Amino acid sequence: MGVGLPDSPRLNREGPEPNIGIVHLGPGAFFRAFNAVYTDEAMQLEGGDWGIAAVSLRSPAARTQLEPQGGVFTSVTLAPEGLQPCVIGSIARTLVAPEDPGEVIATMADPKVKIVSLTITEKGYCTLPSSGALDLGHSDIAHDLLHPEQPRSAIGFIVSALDARRKSGCAGFTVLSCDNLPSNGSLARAIVLEFARQRDGALADWIESAVSFPATMVDRITPATTQDNIETLAEIAGYHDPACVFHEGFRQWVIEDDFADGRPAWESAGAQFVTSVEAHEMMKLRCLNGTHSTLAYLGYLAGYGTIADTVANPDFAALCEMLWREEITPTLEQPDGEDLPAYCASLLERYRNPSIQHMTWQIAMDGSQKLPQRLLGTIADNLKIGRDPKGLILAVAGWMRYVGGQDESGQPIDVRDPLAAALHKASDNAQTNAAKVAALLEFDNVFSGTLTENARFRTLVTQAYVDLVEMGAKAAVKEMTTA
Ligand code: CS2
Q1: Nearest ligand 1 atom, CA 358
Q2: Which top CATH class is 20-274?
Q3: Which of 139, 209, 253, 315 can pair with 478 through a Cys bridge, CB separation 3.0 to 4.6 Å?
Q4: Annotated domain spans of the chain
Q5: Same fold yes or no, 20-274 and 278-482
Q6: Between β-strands 252-256 and 216-219, what pairing exists: parallel, antiparallel or unpaired?
């Protein structure tokens, strides 16, 4: 469990390793700064066997960092008054799925495991982003349907583990999606059931009754850990921790209270349990992630490395304020206990935190998977009521320019996206600006028919793209905010 720092600067647990009650898929920086911290605090305050088996679905990096330290790592809060390190001991075990998929299934099928939580990012769900439906043509899904003993996808592991539990007469578990997707609980439920039904109808029926899929809203800004972070921690704490994470102080976890077989007392660590998460999730996705992606594409094109650098330009800060006021919050229902204008104002403060080196390039990743829920739904809602959401449309044009693969000074952009090659080809093959926009709008797994058939949207996004090409992102943002 957690030990105090800096009085006793050491990287080990005081008590025994916690018994495992949670399997977590996707042990990246966000999971460590968020789920692992909440669970550590909940166990310290209220006890319980909620140790975490952290499973990487791809790279062995997390295991390489965590295993030699017995799963213990340092979470470092970037507080205004300085760095606050805290040692976290909730991870009891680390596994790398491709090395031994059978061991991962067996761990998930252990009756003592009550929760399987996920931070696998948008693309980990193997859906068609524009509709949220399971992509049966996805190579991992096709593989996992043929090889249930050796899955690759999170969905494949979940269904194989549930199959094993059902066969051994054991109860189901809770699948807890902690990714930035709208209605992430029902989305996870729909794709797990769809996948299970492809395998075995009776298994799907059993899952429907034995497994719960609560929705969650998760929020804590956590950039990828850098070598610099590791060295800084070594200076202040006196030890080397390659598994450390640096993050903001703010955190918010809103969870639908629907667990199949118990849960940690996360409320003791500040999590909010509610009957419906939807309004909270829409607020966070559209207000925070929507402007994050806007700043990522337009800021990167304007030559800014981080979000803090981007919003230090008053035009970009004004763009965020305009988006919140005129284009985003009018589409939202105010969640219980929140005040939308105050929420948005606090976001700008969080973005301005100069000690958080959150790279525009990092947030720009996987745009094809992020655009629908962050920007396109809000745009469609505005168009429906006859409003032109020109700022959000400029952000979409920024994405189009970004995935074209060349920045404003002609330098190549390292575009990371599952569709990167296809997007680049489509943009490259088209000769004119209008043809490039039209070619990208053909990606129907990103853009829904509601948008692509809307002539007003097509005109506005083409105009915004031309503006970006002709005047550059800085001037286009300035013009948008002074118009
Ligand atoms: C970011 C998020 O990388 C991204 O796409 O927008 O990870 C963001 O930092 C978190 O959702 C904040 O809670």
Answers
A1: 9
A2: alpha beta
A3: 315
A4: 20-274, 278-482
A5: no
A6: antiparallel
Q: Which two tokens stand for residue 386?
A: 């006859």
> So what's the pLDDT on residue 81?
83
Q: Specify the pLDDT at position 319.
A: 98
Please name the residue whose Cα sits nearest to atom 4 of ligand 1.
Answer: 363
The residues that bridge with 328 in the sheet, in sequence order, are none
Q: CA neighbours within 13 Å on the CB side: how many for 251?
A: 25
* pLDDT at residue number 206: 98
Q: Is the CB of 289 under 6 A from ligand 1?
A: yes
In this prediction the pTM is: 0.96
Ligand 1 close to Cβ of residue 292 (< 6 A): yes
Best residue among 288, 295, 300 to mutate for probing ligand 1, ranked by most atoms within 8 Å of CB: 288
Helix (H) or strand (E) holding 174: strand 174-177
Mutation test residue for ligand 1: of 35, 218, 292, the one with most atoms within 8 Å of CB: 292
Q: Looking at the chain, how many residues does it have?
A: 483
Q: How close is the Cα of 211 to the center of ligand 1, in Å?
A: 28
- Tell me how crowded residue 247 is: count the other CB atoms within 10 A of its CB: 23
> Cα separations (Å) of 398 from 218, 296, 430?
26, 9, 17
Determine contact, residues 321/348, Cβ cutoff 8 Å: yes
**ω into 6 cis (within 30 of 0):** yes
Q: How far is the CA of 434 from the centre of ligand 1 (A)?
A: 31
Dist CA 224 CA 246 (whole Å): 8
Task: Report whether residue 286 contacts ligand 1, using a CB cutoff of 6 Å.
Answer: no
Atom of ligand 1 nearest to the CA of 362: 3
Task: Please report the atom of ligand 1 found closest to the CA of residue 220.
Answer: 13
- Which amino acid is it at 307? I
Mean pLDDT by 10 residues, the chain (483 residues): 46 87 98 98 96 97 95 94 94 98 98 98 96 95 98 98 98 98 97 98 98 98 97 95 97 98 98 97 98 98 98 98 98 96 98 94 98 98 97 98 97 98 98 98 96 98 98 98 86
